[in-house]
């Protein structure tokens, strides 16, 4: 996966003080020149907490032998992690001013430690596993970017297998290179030809171990000038934006580090703004507790809007599992309650300060600092920390000595819903082992898998997280399982109930007024309910006295699901059938978000018992109700239109 640069790398290092330095070419503490730390873009560097350090040490001990982990990461040193692009998850490890190694989560293997030269030099004297001893005559060839061939192997630890991450050392235990074994230890030693190790890091380097302890308190104090500069700019932005917009201001607080920083900045600005927290019903219990604790400690008004109890699990029968490219749950569980909260508490709109940063994604990188979200009528969003990097956020929180969400100390680098499909398999491993909420989702996936005849790999490799898996995932799954993703996602059983889809007959048939389109829905519909919504298509809706069909203008729908659309020109026929299908979805699969009702200035649409209703007599056929709709935008679309 290609690395994407979303902004400047702000991480530098002072070797004299052995401290991370943000932005400054001169160390604020000693005045010496700092150097830029080489990291993979986008460069979202974060602190390694005690959990992270223990996990890395344990992993290194398992792979390379007891004591290797502590030799790699000694006590009393600041350690940082940088999330790098990977098929699942990969973190670069930074200590003593250098990126020394990586940990990577692999399908089928889970966490693997990947040495670079710096880490290899640190552990080479104590490692007892996964090493290959090189013939002195072969050293220069390896260091000239050649792979290590079997004749150049003197010895190897017995545990080495094809595919293992290994360190190439001399008899004196000097690290020469790192790479991936292409033979077992026995084969390397006995063979007189063939590749023994495919090398990755092989150029000689000077050891970068700095024998000087430090702490995060030291790092924060040394970087106070940057923290203060960014804080003051953000405060000025907050005050200026409030003055520009004649709307009540609030803080949107999710319980994560970025929204916490935004909230703290408004306090530093001398403001006590109301705090909006949308409890999606899928939050970690600790997140909800954290939000309440923050608001209580700072004496802030908390506006908490809860998603309907069955907003997620009640809608699964309609939509199925959410996916990275099919995140219907964001609309039903977050957007709907957000719209409801704003309409209820700020009927004339509001200015919401949100912890959005450009380093998070390409989409957020391209967003302005102040924006209007079309999905949330009345809300203007503004981000005081748009240009902040993750390490800026953490330094500010550390400076404020503010308690933060405990899940960051358990291995997560971002906080969201406990079953978010955007999560990596590595994150699900962490959640499954630490959250009492995850068993409910695990049970649902098991039931879904069984009811649809899906294989075990569908769940094990998180294939439910995509409607259309990217090519890189397809190739990796093929490599690990020997099976094509299409085999592992094909449903061999059909549920009795499910979402509606629409299939259109191939081509068009001329008729008396031009063209017609024939289509069929996947199941029967409530025609009586739909007939009221069809008012939005035209002035008069005709209904069959026997209740078998309803028609408006030149489009007719039958109770069993057949549809015929006629028009003078092809595009009109297609437009009308698409609009009718939108009404079918809204009528049958409304999730209760209220977006269409909010757009209806005539109040012909209204909410009742958790779904939208229509008063046909109030409808003026303006078609303003046609627009963003979670039920429509996030429906299953296997073969429709």
Fold blueprint:
Layout: E1 11-14, E2 19-22, E3 35-36, E4 45-47, H1 50-64, H2 68-72, E5 79-84, E6 89-95, E7 98-106, E8 110-115, H3 117-123, E9 131-134, H4 139-143, E10 148-149, E11 153-156, E12 165-169, E13 175-181, H5 185-190, E14 195-201, H6 216-222, H7 224-244, E15 249-252, H8 257-268, E16 275-279, H9 285-297, E17 302-306, H10 316-319, H11 328-345, E18 350-353, H12 362-365, E19 370-372, E20 379-382, H13 390-400, H14 425-434, H15 438-451, H16 456-460, H17 471-481, H18 485-488, E21 502-504, E22 509-511, E23 514-521, H19 527-533, E24 541-543, E25 549-552, E26 555-558, E27 562-567, H20 570-589, H21 595-599, E28 605-608, E29 611-614, H22 630-633
Parallel strand pairs: 9-12, 15-16, 15-18, 16-17, 18-20
Antiparallel strand pairs: 1-2, 1-3, 4-5, 5-6, 6-7, 7-8, 9-11, 10-14, 12-13, 13-14, 19-20, 21-23, 22-23, 23-27, 24-25, 25-26, 26-27, 28-29
Helix pairs in contact: 6-13, 7-13, 8-13
Key terms for this structure?
32% helix; 21% strand; alpha+beta; Rossmann fold; 4 domains; 641 residues; disordered C terminus; six-stranded mixed sheet; single chain; Sulfate adenylyltransferase; seven-stranded antiparallel sheet
Q: How would you describe this protein?
A:
The structure is a single chain. With 641 residues, the protein is α+β, with helices and mostly antiparallel strands. The protein folds into four domains: 11-201, Sulfate adenylyltransferase (Roll); 223-410, HUPs (Rossmann fold), CATH 3.40.50.620; 425-488, no CATH class; 502-633, TATA-Binding Protein. The chain is built from 22 helices and 29 strands. Strand 25 and strand 26 (555-558) form a beta hairpin. The longest helix is centred in the middle third of the chain and has 21 residues, at 224-244. It is globular and about 95 Å long.
């Amino acid at each position: 996966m290609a690395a994407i640069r979303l902004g400047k790398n702000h991480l530098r290092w002072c070797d004299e003080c052995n401290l991370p330095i943000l932005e400054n070419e001169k160390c604020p503490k000693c005045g010496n020149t700092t150097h830029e730390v080489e990291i993979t873009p986008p460069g979202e560097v974060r602190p390694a907490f005690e959990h992270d350090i223990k996990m890395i040490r344990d992993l290194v001990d398992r792979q390379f032998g007891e004591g290797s982990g502590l030799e790699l990461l000694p006590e009393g040193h600041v350690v940082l992690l940088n999330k790098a692009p990977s098929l699942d998850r990969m973190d670069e490890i930074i200590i003593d001013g250098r990126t020394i190694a990586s940990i990577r989560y692999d399908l089928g293997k889970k966490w693997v430690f990947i040495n670079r030269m710096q880490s290899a030099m640190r552990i080479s004297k104590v490692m007892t596993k996964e090493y290959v001893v090189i013939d002195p005559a072969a050293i220069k060839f390896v260091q000239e970017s050649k792979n290590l061939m079997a004749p150049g192997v003197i010895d190897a630890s017995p545990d080495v297998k094809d595919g293992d991450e290994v360190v190439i050392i001399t008899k004196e235990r000097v690290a020469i290179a790192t790479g991936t074994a292409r033979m077992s230890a026995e084969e390397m030693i006995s063979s007189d030809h063939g590749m023994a190790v495919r090398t990755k890091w092989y150029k000689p380097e000077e050891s970068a171990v700095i024998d000087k302890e430090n702490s995060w308190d030291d790092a924060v104090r040394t970087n106070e000038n940057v923290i203060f500069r960014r804080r003051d700019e953000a405060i000025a932005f907050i005050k200026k934006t409030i003055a520009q917009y004649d709307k009540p201001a609030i803080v949107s607080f999710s319980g994560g580090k970025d929204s916490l920083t935004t909230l703290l900045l408004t306090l530093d600005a001398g403001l006590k703004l109301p705090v909006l927290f949308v409890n999606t019903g899928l939050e970690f219990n600790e997140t909800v507790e954290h939000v309440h604790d923050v608001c209580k400690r700072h004496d802030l008004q908390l506006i908490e809007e809860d998603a309907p109890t069955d907003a997620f699990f009640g809608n699964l029968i309609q939509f199925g599992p959410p996916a990275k490219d099919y995140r219907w749950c964001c609309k039903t569980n977050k957007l709907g309650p957000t719209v409801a909260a704003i309409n209820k508490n700020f009927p004339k709109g509001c200015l919401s300060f949100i912890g959005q940063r450009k380093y998070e994604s390409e989409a957020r990188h391209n967003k302005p600092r102040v924006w209007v979200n079309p999905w949330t009528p009345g809300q203007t969003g503004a981000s005081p920390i748009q240009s902040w990097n993750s390490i800026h956020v953490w330094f500010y929180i550390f400076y404020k000595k503010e308690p933060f969400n405990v899940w960051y100390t358990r291995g997560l680098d971002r906080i969201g819903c406990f079953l978010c499909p955007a999560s990596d398999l590595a994150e699900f491993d962490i959640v499954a082992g630490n959250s009492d909420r995850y068993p409910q989702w695990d049970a649902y996936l098991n039931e879904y898998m069984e009811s649809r005849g899906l294989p075990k790999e569908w769940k094990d490799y998180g294939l439910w997280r995509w409607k259309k898996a990217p090519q890189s995932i397809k190739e990796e799954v093929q490599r690990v399982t020997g099976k094509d993703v299409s085999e592992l996602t094909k449903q061999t059983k059909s549920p009795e109930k499910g979402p509606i889809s629409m299939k259109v007959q191939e081509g068009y048939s001329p008729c008396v007024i031009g063209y017609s389109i024939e289509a069929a829905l996947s199941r029967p519909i409530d025609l009586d309910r739909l007939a009221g919504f069809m008012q939005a298509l035209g002035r008069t809706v005709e209904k069959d006295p026997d209740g078998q069909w309803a028609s408006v203008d030149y489009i007719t729908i039958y109770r069993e699901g057949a549809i015929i659309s006629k028009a003078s020109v092809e595009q009109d026929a297609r437009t009308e059938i698409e609009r009718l299908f939108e009404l079918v979805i809204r009528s049958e699969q409304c999730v209760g978000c209220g977006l269409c009702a909010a757009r209806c200035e005539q109040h012909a649409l209204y909410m009742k018992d958790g779904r939208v209703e229509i008063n046909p007599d109030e409808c003026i056929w303006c078609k303003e109700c046609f627009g963003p709709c979670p039920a429509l935008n996030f429906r299953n679309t296997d073969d429709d239109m």
